[in-house]
From TrEMBL:
Keyword Membrane: no
SMART domains, A to Z: AAA
Keyword terms of this UniProt record: ATP-binding, Nucleotide-binding, Transport
Similarity annotation: Belongs to the ABC transporter superfamily.
Domain of life: Bacteria
Record's protein name: ABC transporter ATP-binding protein
Organism: Terrabacter aerolatus
PANTHER family on file: ABC TRANSPORTER, ATP-BINDING PROTEIN (PTHR43335:SF4)
Domain ABC transporter: from-to ranges: 19-250
Length: 323
């Protein structure tokens, strides 16, 4: 099983963490949407923030960006406390929260021009160069003159990311950046995130597509019912999960009974056979018991669980693994 998240001291400003929270909590009436959250997001990482709908991901992001005041706890972005130091740190942070919103009858470039003009920290003298650079970074320079209403979902998401990149950013916070995208649009956003990370930008991304998270994230945090149930590097989080034995057989009912009698945990039927957690039982003992009972074993494997298996074990809920 994955180790539970242990409380850790809040880091001091100037540490190697891009995001740090301590006991971050948000209540709506008697309900705690986020409950005692201790996030540790290393600088330069791509941090995948996972959780089913209603687990508190978006509420957490809104608190981190100073859009919602927490009921309790503290948070820092790039070493600055939020919301107290929001004016100092937010110009160094780009964000996409709950989907892009632009003027439909304006072109992509015109939309970015309006946003840039409203940014008091942006230099109007190099506005055009910065806008073109941001459009080029997300692959939209050639279609910058097209009206936003004619953009595909993937193009709209990329334009929103371009808006977050109009000035240099040290931290990028993306809430479901691949939501509603087709496979091509999803790949485009994934490659963009990888490109940003390679340049040293820390990317904090919430997502419901486990296959995408597996491919692009260096660190993971898993939310369930407002609480953080696992956190660490991808290797640490996934390495803490117990291996799973899978047996392909035409006698799954008998095999399941034998595995249960041997002491395997979580024995269940799967297409073509059964699986369960050995819990220290040697593979040769499992195979021998099956064969001695007359069960024909077509294939026997022991492997680390997938990210989907890990997610289900931590939250008790299924997840979207398409991509």
């Amino acid at each position: 099983m994955t180790r539970p998240v242990e409380p850790q001291p809040s880091p001091a400003p100037g540490s190697d963490l891009a995001i740090a929270t301590r006991g971050l909590t948000k209540r709506f009436g008697a309900r705690a949407a986020v409950d005692g959250l201790d996030l540790l997001v290393p600088r330069g990482s791509v941090y995948g923030f996972l959780g089913p709908n209603g687990s508190g991901k978006t509420t957490t992001i809104r608190m981190l960006l100073g859009l919602v005041r927490p009921s309790a706890g503290t948070s820092t972005l790039l070493g600055q406390p939020v919301p107290q130091g929001a004016q100092l740190v937010l110009p160094r942070v780009g964000s996409l929260v709950e989907g892009p919103a632009f003027h439909p009858y304006l072109s992509g470039r015109a939309n970015l021009q309006r946003l840039d003009a409203a940014d008091l920290t942006a230099d109007a003298r190099d506005s055009r160069q910065r806008i073109d650079a941001a459009l080029d970074r997300v692959g939209l320079l050639a279609t910058a003159g097209k009206r936003y209403r004619a953009y595909s979902l993937g193009m709209r998401q990329r334009l929103a990311i371009a808006a977050a990149l109009l000035v240099p950013r040290e931290l990028l916070v993306l809430d479901e950046p691949t939501n509603g995208l087709d496979p091509q649009g999803t790949r485009e956003v994934r490659h963009l995130v990888a490109s940003l990370a390679s340049d040293g930008t820390t990317v904090f991304v919430s997502s419901h597509l486990l296959s995408e998270v597996e491919q692009m994230c260096t660190h993971l945090g898993v939310m369930s019912d407002g609480r953080l149930v696992a956190q660490g590097s991808s290797t640490e989080v996934r390495g803490g999960a117990a291996p799973v034995a899978r047996i392909l057989t035409e006698q799954p009912t008998v095999a399941a009974r034998i595995l249960t009698e041997l002491g395997l945990v979580g024995v269940e039927a799967v297409p073509g056979g059964v699986r369960g957690t050995p819990d220290g039982i040697a593979p040769e003992k499992i195979v021998a018991a099956l064969v001695e009972s007359g069960v024909g074993v077509k294939e026997f494997t022991v492997s680390s669980p997938s990210l989907e298996d890990l997610f289900v074990s931590l939250t008790g809920e299924g997840f979207d693994v398409s991509g």
